[in-house]
Amino acid sequence: MMIVREYISQLEDATLSLVSRINEVDFEELLAFAEQREELVEKILPLKESFADQDRKRLKDLSKYDSMILDRMEHFKSEASQWLLNRGTIKDQRSAYNSSYTPESMFFDRKN
């Protein structure tokens, strides 16, 4: 079926283009790729009964790039996680230093 082959070709083109420059891809581009891939897969899945062996092989060959793409996603996830942790620490420190104290209050420091 020609339409299945066209969808698979679009998926191959998008995947190979992304993988060829995976280390330079930013988060937005990776997100756009994931959305495009999802759209193509949603078009391909209902037609899976009409796949030729060649179509199945092409899709299987594309799956070898999944780990590389997932590694890049994990990289961005860990960057975002680290940024959130740093931001939370800064927020805690800022609130500790900027707390308003009542001038008449007393502070007791106890040794344990």
Stretches with pLDDT under 50, minimum 5 residues: none
Which radius of gyration do the C-alpha atoms yield?
25 Å
| Strand residue percentage | under 5%
Sketch the topology as an H/E string, one letter per element: HHHH
For the sheet with most strands, the description reads: none
* End-to-end gap: 78 Å
Describe this structure in words.
By secondary structure, this protein is mainly α. The protein has a domain at 2-77. It is 71% helix and 0% strand. The protein has helices spanning 2-20, 27-44, 53-62, 66-97. α1 (2-20) runs antiparallel to α2 (27-44). The protein is rod-shaped. The N and C termini lie far apart (78 Å). It is found in: Cytoplasm, Cytosol. May act as an export chaperone for the filament capping protein FliD. InterPro entries: FliT (IPR008622). Belongs to the bacillales FliT family.
